[in-house]
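Researcher: Here's a chain I'd like modeled. Treat it as a single chain, no partners, no ligands.
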Amino acid sequence: MALLRQQLPPPLPLPLIHGHSSTLKPCLFRLSKTLRLFSLYSAPPTPTSNSSASIFLPFLEEEEDHEEEEGLGSVADEKEEDPDDPIVRFFKSRTSTQDPQREGKLSLQKNRRSSWHLADDLDDSEPDSGVDPVPEVQEQQLGPVSSDSIPLADGVVGQILQKARNLGQNLTLGEELGGFEGRVGEKECVEVLDLMGEEGLLMGCLYFFEWMGLQEPCLVTPRACSVLFPILGRAGMGDKLVVLFKNLPGKKEFRDVHVYNAAISGLMCSKRYDDAWKVYETMEANNILPDHVTCSIMITIMRKIGRSAKDSWDFFERMNRKGVKWSQEVLGALIKSFCDEGLKSEALIILIEMEKKGISSNAIVYNTLMTAFCDSNRVEEAEGLFAEMKSKGIKPTSPTFNILMDAYSRRMQPEIVEKLLVEMQEMGLEPNVKSYTCLVSAYGRQKNMSDMAADAFLRMKKVGIRPTSHTYTALIHAYSVSGWHEKAYIAFENMKKEGLKPSIETYTALLDAFRRAGDTEMLMRIWKLMIKEKVQGTKVTFNTLLDGFSKQGHYLEARDVVSEFGNMGLQPTVMTYNMLMNAYARGGQHSKLPQLLKEMEVLNLKPDSVTYSTMIYAYIRVRDFSRAFFYHKRMVKSGQVPDARSYEKLRAILDVKLARKNKKDKSAILGIINSKMGMLKIKKKGKKDEFWKNKKKRYVRGDNAVTDTNN
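Model: Modeled as a single isolated chain. Structure tokens:
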């Protein structure tokens, strides 16, 4: 018990994960003989007594209090034998609670009116390092589920579940289970944990697991650990998982590959990849043979921590030598690693070898390959994989169709998206919100197609599918492209009324709508709303605001945008200065262009073809051809020539101006030569009289002079 009260040391750094690739491979596959001494998760010693020790949060336990608890328990049992004792009747009239010693395992705040909460396994001053917040999707999956949607359990399981749902204030589940001692078996405990995990009763799971460890005999089994660990991992409670795994009983039955797989999987879900790798090292140190599930989880972890596909393949070969068989899970994880690095051909080779080994593929593997090809704009190859999986009898899933819909949506081909939607329904699959979002986006990317995008949006709501923020963003973008900024703002207001939080993409699409309309007042209003809602902009947001203000002549506001986003860490780019130059040129302030060019040089920004073209056209517009030719020469020397069509148009304009300039230059050069050679006739100046200033010059047109001569 003294060992259980010791505080866990902080996790040791992993040079294996954060080192260079040249040093990773030996560390990955070399087993250290001293691993048992240094691993955080080395197996705990075997209990010296037959009584099961507390598993969860044993750090506040005192041995002396434990002895007193046993003494008090025996005295109470003796007194219960006499039914006429008034003290016994008094205690029977009270609600059943846990013994005082068990309360010592929980941390209660000084204010008694506050709720009970679990004591931290480590020092409160140390935050949970390396754990990012649980994604929104996982939170929705793990949130409390309505009890009506889950079938009611019968017997003891249903009674415990009912108590977990209806816990009173300042009470824990362990305190409410005093009357269930001896009535619950190992199978029922696993069932209770599973049901409470489905309903999101996470703290109830922890308290119930602790109660299981306090029973005689102990009800904690490897199966119970395999159920609880993934639940805690998906909820982002990796610190609690570490404590539970550290304090597992040292019995042989707990050295099971399924328990280790559950712990590694839970730590991976909570993004504690270092701790997950330590569990795997402990597994190797204890000579526990991994299986295909272990291999697939570890390959996924290697991909998430940035290891290369080659490292994943080497790890797979090592597992293969240990006797791990090929499976869909392992090869699916390998294919995902290769696809993420863009090695699509190698991923296809793995798929072929997989079929040669007699392992049939599934829709998940094909979805991974199709996503990789669509992301590379190779939709034809993705279509080929789609036809291949249907020919092999693999039924496509909703994500399969959504992958193709998204690809054709980016290609602005809504008619193909409509056909895929019909084919999806013919195969018995119901389109989901992502399917309709792709359709809205496909119409919205084209100009003057906002009515079709709105029609697709209404079709989705008609079938009872609730739109998401992505759907509204696609609709707002459709209105923006078509110039309907009023409708875009109405859609934005409807989105907030439905309780959907606008994302940064939503705000950017709305800003783009008013940028196209030239409404700088609404641009400023939406920007202030973003700051109020603490929505941090991106580079696209930055450029949208800058272009909207600068094109309307609001140069001070445009400079404020540059300064504000610079404070956020978004420094101006070449595109930023191109938009500023275009705005200044359109506003007739071409004299500012050289100054902007010098600012780019200070920021080490290299001007591109757009920069030079903007300056050349600006000077042509004000008939300053000398500067236009000067910056054209600089553009050619720097090698920043625009595309052939744009450059041909620019050269045509410059050639016309050059012909006129050469004609004037030729006349000037001939005059200089003639004057130097003495061939220039000197005009004699006549003597002026005193009235020469009052004389009016009379200009006679040449045709009139000819007419007068003929007359």
